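Give me structure tokens for this 297-residue protein.
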Amino acid sequence: MAILSAVLSPALPIPRADWLAGRAQLTVLRLRRTSGVAVLLLLAALVATVERASQGTAAPSAALRWTAAFLLASVLSFVLGFLLECARPTLASAREAALLTGLPVRVIPRESGASQREAYHLAYLALGGSTSAGGAIVLTRGRASLLAELAHGLATAAVEDARAVVIIDGDADAPSVHARYGIARAPGCAEALVGVHLWRDVIHTVSVGAGRVQVIAAGDRRAAGDDRTALGLEEWSRFRVDYDVVIVVAPSGDAAARAVESMVGGAQVACVVEEGVTRQRGVVASADASSSVITVT
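Here you go.
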């Protein structure tokens, strides 16, 4: 009982009722999305086979056996999935992200459409777009491809607001922006930082929504021959003069820390998490270096 109590008791600042409800919701979602149906059918077939092979003159009907097998399989599958989710809990909702981090949370739906465009616009305004000077946004901690997609959505919102925008892939170890826009990975930010190429030679102009944005790929740090991948004060000042909005993609924690360190006082750092995917403890670990959270649902 002590072990079960420890598993079912949240060690994080979330009310127990909300925490357990979130675990149950994610368990049902996983059973629907993954192998839940296959597990149910396998267990049902196993129980039916055992019943068929059993001896006795008062054997239940086939319909009754299959009904009992399905119900038993459903209960066992849910209990197993629930215990696994409790053992290694993932983020269940935007409200849970707010309780864990104490930071403002912006929600972006996965499905494209009017609601997603509106969510990007609100997130852009919340992350500094509402000010006359624009600002810098650092997207961090999420999957590289997801961060690139979020950068695209925020850039689209900024372009609709008639802002000059540049997207910088700040992590040469996990590059993603070049694939999103179909441009070459190198030369890019890494080469420009060490002087192998001029900044104007690594800037690509791409169409975004009804306008255009400037994009700088990550580059190849090995080709550049240096491990300096963060914007220095000189480069940062240049971009802040030339652009209204600077969006930096930095998937890994180290790259994000370097990017933020060089932008002290001038950047909004958004930790990106995915509902039902990101582990709770990972969200908590990212909160200290972040000013807000973007939850993808």
